[in-house]
Amino acid sequence: MDIFREMAKRGHEQVIFNYDKASGLKAIIAIHDTTLGPAIGGCRMWPYENSDAALEDALRLSESMTYKAAAAGLDFGGGKTVIIGDPSSGKSEGLFRALGRFVQTLQGRVTLSEDVGTNAEDFVHTAKETPYVVGLPTAYGGSGDTRDVTALGVIIAMRAALAYRFGSPSLSGRTIAVQGLGKVGLRVVRQALSEGASVIVADINPHAVGKAVAELNVEPTDPWAILETPCDIFAPCALGNVVNEETLPRLKCAIIAGSANNQLSDASYASRLRDQNILYAPDFIVNSGGLIQVADELKGYRSDRAHHQVEAIYDTLTAIFTAADEEQLSTLDVAMRIVDERLDLLNRIRRIYRNPS
Ligand code: NAD
Fold first, then answer.
1. Which of 124, 173, 188, 277 has the largest count of CB atoms under 10 Å?
2. Is the Cα dihedral 148, 152, 158, 162 positive or negative?
3. Binding-site residues, ligand 1, Cβ < 6 A
C-alpha cells in the first residue's frame, strides 16, 4: 500500500507503527482528523492476514471516528488503534502495557477505548502506563464497558427508522435479523425481544448461536443466510463491509440499523440502498453510543448525561431520513453534510482568539 497516497485520499494526519519485541506487540495507531479536538477511538485486536489489512482497517475505522464524533456533537477527533494478534490467545499484561507506553508518547493526541477483540479489563494494564485510556471498569474509576450504551443507541436508531418507515417506533411484532452475537449484538437481541420483536440470529461462532438459542426465544440461521432473510430490520452487529456487490441484491430488509462500523464496503452503496427502497441508518450515527460514553468519562462520567446524548440519535436520524427524501439524496450524503458543516463551523469559530486556559 502507498501509505501517503492513502492518507491523502482519506485526509489522515498521522499513522504510527508500534513494535515491541519483548511483548510481541504489533500495533498501528491511525489519527484521522483533529479539527474538533484530540483523537479518541477504540483499540481492536484481530488476527489480520498481514500488515496491509491491519493498516487498511485502522485507516477506515479512524476516519469513521471523526464522522461519529462530529455528528454526535462531540469535540473530539477520529483515531483508531489496531493490534495484530489473536484476542483468544495473544493477550498479556506486557502487550497492553507496551501499548500504553507508546500511547503516552503521543501526549494525549489519542485516547484509547475498547473495541472488537478487547475489553475494559485489558486496559487496566494500559492505564498503568498512560492516562489516555477510557472505558475502564467502574472499579478503576472508569465508565465501564461500552456495550450497553452502544446497544441502547442501536435500539433508539431502530425506533427512529421504524417510525419513519412504518409510522410507529414500536419494535413489537417486527422481525429483526441480527448478524453477530457479540458484546453489542447480544444486548440488542435481548432488548428487541423484551420489546416484543421476533429475532433471527447468526454468528460465525456456533457456541454463541447455541447459547442464544438455548437461553432466548430466537431463531438461528447461518451467517450467509441472515443477509437474505426477509425482515423489517437487518442489524449488522459483526464486522464491516456487509453491504457489497455480492450482498446488495440479496438483501430483503426494509431497514438497515446495526452497530458494526463501516457497513458499506463503498460509500456509493448508500444510493443503491435508496434505489432498492432500503432505509439505511448511517452506521456512525447508530453506533455512536459507545463513543458518547467514553467521551463523557473524560469529564467525569455521568450516565444520565451520556444517556441524554444517546437519545438524540432518534432526532438526528429522523432529520437525516426526512432531508434525504426531500432532497433525493442518500442518508449517508445527508449525514456527511452534517459532519462537514460541523467541522467547518468549528474551524471558523476557532479563529476567534481566546485564552487557552
Ligand atoms: P464482539 O467482538 O464482541 O462481537 C462480534 C461478533 O460478531 C462475534 O460474536 C463474532 O463471532 C461475530 N462475527 C464476526 N464475523 C461474523 C460474520 N461474518 N457473521 C456473523 N457473525 C460474525 O464485538 P462488539 O463489541 O459486539 O462489536 C460489534 C460491532 O459493533 C463491531 O463492528 C464494532 O466495531 C461495532 N461497535 C462496537 C461498539 C462497542 O461499544 N462495543 C461501539 C461502536 C461500534
1. 188
2. positive
3. 115-117, 146-147, 150, 179-185, 202-205, 208, 223, 237-239, 259-261, 287, 290
Q: 289-316 pLDDT, tens per residue?
A: 999 999 999 988 999 999 999 999 999 9
Domains and CATH numbers, the chain: 3-62+78-140 (3.40.50.10860), 147-341 (3.40.50.720)
User: Does residue 26 have an active-site annotation?
Assistant: no
Hey, which residues does 110 pair with through a beta bridge?
A: 39
In 75-217 the beta strands, taken as DSSP E runs, fall at 77-84, 110-114, 175-179, 198-202
Going from the Cα of 185 to the center of ligand 1, the distance in angstroms, rounded, reads 7
Query: How far, in Å, from the CA of 272 to the mean position of ligand 1?
Result: 25
The tens digit of pLDDT for each residue in 201-235 reads 999 999 999 999 999 999 999 999 999 999 999 99
